[in-house]
Amino acid sequence: MPLLPGLRSAPLWRHETASVHPDLRPEGFDMVDPAHRPLPAGVAAMLADRGFAGRDVLHVSDKVVVVAGVWEGEQAVAKIRVGDDGYWGVRQQAERRVYAALAEQEAGVRTARLLYCDDRMIVLERLAGTAAGTGRYPADVTTAGAAAVMDALTCLHAWRPTYQALDAFPGTRLNVHRALANAGLADRDAHAVDILHARSTRLRVEHGDPLAGNFLLDGGRAAVLDLEHAGWHLPGTDWALMTLLWAPRQPDLRGLLQAAVDRDRVHDGYAVALIAYACHELALHQTFGAHTSNRRRTVLNTNLSHAREILHATLEKPSP
Asked: Which three-class secondary structure state does DSSP give residue 142?
């Protein structure tokens, strides 16, 4: 599918383990409760050098350390990139551009203000609220919370920033075919993807990583966090990812998501994104999930079966 003029094309996904800069290595952390461990010396020095006061660790991974504190008298959150993987450096700079674009042209969605950024660190306003849910496959999302998140995403989907401000994640046929091949799907599935992909001629702005923890609920509204993968995607990508991640343990949410697909008339893009990311999730856990539980494997295989059903059912429908 051709890109809109001037758009930067980004990989649809990346799942390699990041190498960690030795001065920023988070080896001393308790990964379950990182707040009870000291910051790596390099991270503490970076925060002090930039005038960020605070050591309340919110999140740790091999890619990023997130710390809450005070920046120039304002409650803030610092995201320090600790991985040396170039891909995550690119995504951090992409997130910076998204926040800059939101400052220039509002999207009608609650997001944090960008306070500072450099090649390793982003400082954002700290927003009030509680996460919409916990874990990759949450079981604690309320119907009201899901509706608030979907309202916020609907506003984001309607946002029309300058095309060049955001990256594009078009889900190229090569990427999707590779994902299908890795999952052992048939030529019949690839043929269906080709037809629906060709029918999805327009991209739209989507979050691209709608984990339940990337949304804060406060006063009946949802704030949107972590915009590293926000950009121009196949329409319906967010609904597809939420179907794969939110619905397995809370099947009542599937109807809300399908209603959003029907309302937006994004059946083709949704079906392609659903099968592509179902295959990707399976490959992700096959590569790194040697200790994946039988229940998780059941979820992954059920998601893939559901995605194939949607793929071929959508193929039988006329193009909207």
From this structure: coil
In contact, 67 and 24? CB cutoff 8 Å: no
How far is it between the farthest Cα atoms of the chain? 60
Residue pLDDT, tens place only, 197-247: 999 878 999 999 999 999 999 999 999 999 999 999 999 999 999 999 999
CA–CA distance, 271 with 178 (Å, rounded to integer): 16
Bridge pairing between strands 121-125 and 74-81: antiparallel
CA 34 → CA 18, 39, 66, distances in Å? 19, 9, 10
| Cα Rg of the chain (Å, integer) | 20
Q: Could you give the angle at which helices 173-182 and 187-199 cross, rounded to 10 degrees?
A: 150
β-pairing, 231-233 vs 64-71, is unpaired
pLDDT in tens, 80-91: 998 777 888 889
